[in-house]
Every structure is written in structure tokens, then in C-alpha cells.
Amino acid sequence: EDQVTQSPEALRLQEGESSSLNCSYTVSGLRGLFWYRQDPGKGPEFLFTLYSAGEEKEKERLKATLTKKESFLHITAPKPEDSATYLCAVAFSGSARQLTFGSGTQLTVLP
Amino acid sequence: GAVVSQHPSRVICKSGTSVKIECRSLDFQATTMFWYRQFPKKSLMLMATSNEGSKATYEQGVEKDKFLINHASLTLSTLTVTSAHPEDSSFYICSASLGRPYNEQFFGPGTRLTVL
How far apart (Å, rounded) are the C-alpha atoms in residues A35 and A50? Predict the structure, then answer.
């Protein structure tokens, strides 16, 4: 069964304390892995798309990487405004453009 | 670019009434739109996939007669919750795809529905 698992469920960091969020997947024929940020009471905001193992994307303090089994979202020197839930989703062969979402990592950055 | 709007952002209605939620892609044409439901502290649950000009495809367990979806144009999809009941109270979010296979989805801000 195709699955997407995110860890940890929740993460509390001090401002400036770098860390990584993990998204592991077991799908047949990965067609894309997507990272989103979601603030409470709002829709997910698109961050990155990764298509092949070895690919990396960066945006401000965030860097996403992809291997054949997992993706990492690295957060460098986070600030309180980075606090949010980070969602990972995958598209795979036969998914008809649908995304399978992980359960998310709730990140809290303390000042 | 790739902005998706939803209206209304919040709605409170009485049990038994119907509620319509609009989803619009503002700066691109979306051949495919998706409707999700999200429970507190949970991830997104796909309800249906909507293609312009054709009937929506509903996920297993989603009542198509309760959740009516219309995708009348390349920039507008609507979700109507018919005869709403308190258990339909939830956060409903739409997304739109640029149309190329397996591309990212861009999400609307969501609609909080409360049924009294």
C-alpha cells in the first residue's frame, strides 16, 4: 500500500537551532514529492516540488532534499515565524494527479 | 502566480440547509480541481477530484448526493453541502492543478463550516 510517513509529529526548537523534518514514502513510481507549509486556519502554502533522487531545492531558511526513499526539509537558523505545520505529499504512477499526504510535522520555534 | 481563492472563508448555518463554497483559480486555468476536508490536527482528506466540464470523481465513503461538485469553467469549481448536519462541520479546502501530469497543487485559504 502506498504510504507517506512524516516524523517527528511535533518539534520544538529554539530560535536559531537548525534541524530537519523527515518524510519517508513507499510508493510505486514516484512522480513528484511536494512540501507545503500550513498555518492554523489556512490552506497549505506550496513550498517545493522534487522529482528525482538527488534533487535539492532552497528557499530562504528552508532546503528540501530527496532520496529514493525519503525527503528531508532542513531548516537553518529558524525564526518564530517559521512555526507552522509542514506537510509532505507525493504523486505516483496511477494516482491520476492526486496527492497522498503525510500527517504533517508541527514545528514550533521559540524566541 | 498560482493564486487560488475560496469564498466564503467562514459560514455558519442551521441544520438542514445547503451551503455553497466557491473555489477560483485567479491567475491560471485549472483543468483539475480538488476538494479536501480537514479535521482538527489532522492531515487533508481528499473528497473528490473535479475536471472541467465533466462529473467529479468521489473518493470512497464520500456521498456524492450530499457533496455536490460543479466545475463549470477552467477557473471555477463549487462544492455544495446539501442538507447540512452538525457532523458536516469541518474545514473545507480546495486546490487547483496547472494541468500537467503530476504537478503541484495550489490551495485556497479554506472555508470553515459550522452547522448548528
Answer: 9
Contact B89, B23 (CB under 8 A): no
- Binding-site residues on chain A for chain B (CB distance < 8 A): 31-32, 34, 36, 41-46, 49, 87, 91, 95-99, 101-104
Q: Determine, for residues B102 and A102 on separate chains, whether the beta-carbon distance falls below 8 Å.
A: no
* Residue B23 CB partners (closer than 8 Å, separation 6+): B4, B5, B6, B33, B35, B76, B77, B78, B79, B94, B96, B108
Contact by Cβ (8 Å): A87, A104: yes
* Eight-state DSSP code of residue B18: -
Give the strands of the sheet with A56-59, arranged side by side. Answer: A3-7, A19-26, A70-75, A62-66, A56-59
Task: With CB atoms and an 8 Å threshold, state whether A45 touches B110.
Answer: no
Check if the beta carbon of residue A37 is closer than 8 Å to that of residue A86. Answer: yes
How far B19 CA sits from the closest chain A CA (Å)? 19
Q: What is the pLDDT of residues B75-103, one digit of tens each?
A: 999 999 999 999 999 999 999 987 665 56
Q: Collect all residues with Cβ–Cβ distance below 8 Å to B28 and sequence separation of at least 6.
A: B1, B2, B96, B98
Helix (H, G, I), strand (E, B) or coil at A79: coil
Burial class (CB in 10 A: 0-12, 13-18, 19+), B43: buried
Confidence (pLDDT) at B99: 66
